[in-house]
Amino acid sequence: MNAVGNYAIVTAAYWGFTLTDGALRMLVLLHFFTLGFTPFQLAFLFVLYELFGVITNLVGGWIGARFGLRSTLHGGLTLQIAALGMLALLDPAWPLAASIAYVVAAQGLAGIAKDLTKMSAKTAIKVVVPGGAHGTLFRWVALLTGSKNALKGVGYFLGGLLLATLGFGGALGAMAGALAVVLLASVTLLSGDLGKTKDKAPFSEILSKSRPINILSAARLFLFAARDVWFVVGVPIFAYDVLGWSFVQVGTFLALWVIGYGFVQAAAPTVIRRSPDGLAREVPMARLWAFVLAAIPVGIWAALAAGAEPQASIVIGLGLFGIAFAINSAVHSYLILAYSDADKAALNVGFYYMANAAGRLVGSLLSGLSYQLGGLGACLATASVFVLASALIALGLPKTRPPPVGDRLTVEP
Questions:
Q1: pLDDT of residue 408
Q2: Domain assignment of residue 410, yes or no
Q3: In whole angstroms, what is the distance from residue 77 CA to residue 179 CA?
Q4: Which of 149, 196, 303, 348 has CB atoms 3.0–4.6 Å from 308's, for a disulfide?
């Protein structure tokens, strides 16, 4: 099978995985909140999920470059099935401490699985798209990222629905079975060494040596910390506990938010001004949209503080946040590939998504802590600080790509 055919299989498998990833987050969050977990305890359940994501992205890029993306994709799918199976065996009669430790461990496996599959799908684009085809690269990245987030949104809805209809264990069993079918199809159909480098990359190359990639990764860390500081615990628990929404309503709202966010990401190439070299206009737009995004959490927080109707403030404010965030994220996802050589794509994407996972880890922990200390307003205030930091860091992104020297990217002075 040719590279495009293999890419289609990788993408389809990633889509199937994404549905279970979104549903699992909603299942865990809502199920354990009904069992009496505090906001910070809920956030703690995701610690290993995000921490192992940091480690996986750092090491996974090297594994993908050395052994091919087939190994990382199938490893991710297998670990997700194992994580779902572990959680399905959870016994409600276990002591609280044992239950927390067990769930955190299972979520750790899910975190490894998530970032192995994501790194595989994102890197496959760089391998397939011809060098210099910047417009095609941007469109493909935006389409994959947008469709992934739309499906993750469907997963949030699916998680709330399955929890309400099949219960916690039944929902997990159904998802594990469906994902096993996806894994079997991928093992059967996917062939070749997609993404495998010609030269064996030394393990020392897992840390980026490129200034543009380091700057972009730092901006990405703060960008995703800003999202997850309200997204992981703050808004779902606020909607359920304060606004009185049901499981299905909470899942539906987050699903619609992520689906809309995914459609905006897919449409980002029509919004961003393009340049022949793929950077001269794209980088300034990345900076501009970062500052636009920074103003939105402040506006939501100010509306709530002024006594505006909470439900309308949240729905409208987060809708605007989703639009600006989606464009930021899409441009970042394009730039990481635009700054990379094809042979270094897996290593650079792994490093970049390591920073992404680190941001999610920080945001997840502070989401529970901020909400417990100061409610949703504290979550939004923290998000504002993080987005502003991301915007300021993005000012350092260069508008030209440093030329490769040998098999390494040069470090700009």
A1: 39
A2: no
A3: 7
A4: 303
- Tokens found for residue 41: 């305890």
Read off the pLDDT of residues 329-374 as tens digits, 9 standing for 90 and up: 888 888 887 787 655 666 777 778 788 888 988 998 888 888 888 8
- 347 falls within a domain: yes
Residue 194 has a pLDDT of 57
199 domain-assigned = no
Q: So what's the pLDDT on residue 413?
A: 29
Question: Could you tell me the residue range of the domain that residue 144 belongs to?
Answer: 3-188+206-403
* CATH number of the domain encompassing residue 86: 1.20.1250.20
| Domain total in the chain | 1
What pTM value is reported for the model?
Answer: 0.69
For residue 407, what pLDDT is reported?
A: 41
How many CB atoms sit inside 10 A of residue 408's CB?
Answer: 12
pLDDT < 70: residue spans in the chain: 1-4, 60-62, 64-68, 122, 124-135, 137-138, 191-209, 274, 277-278, 341-346, 401-413
Using only the alpha carbons of the chain, give its radius of gyration.
20
